[in-house]
Amino acid sequence: MSTNKYYGRRRSSSPLLPEGVDIIVESPAFEACSIMDKFLVYASSIIVVGSPVWFYGGIIYLFRKWRHYRELAHAASAKTNKTASSTNNYATSSGESSQESSEKQPPLSLEEIHQCTLDYEKYQRLAKRYCTALITVIVLSIWGPHRSRKVGEFLGVRKWRLWDAWLKYIGYTVLHDKGIEGHTSESRISRMNNPHVENDNDAILAFVPHGIFPFALAFSCLPQQGYEETWGVFRPVVATATKLFPLVRTFIAWMGGIDASRSAVSSALNLSDTVGIAPGGIAEMFETYPKPGFHRNDEAFRVRNGIFKLALKHNRPIVPIYCFGATKMLRRVQLPVFIENLSRILKISLCLFFGKLGLPIPFRQRLMYVMGKTIYPPLDIESGDLLDQQAQEMHHRFCDEIMRIFENNKDHYGWGNKTIRLV
Question: What is the pTM for the complete model shown?
Answer without folding.
Answer: 0.82
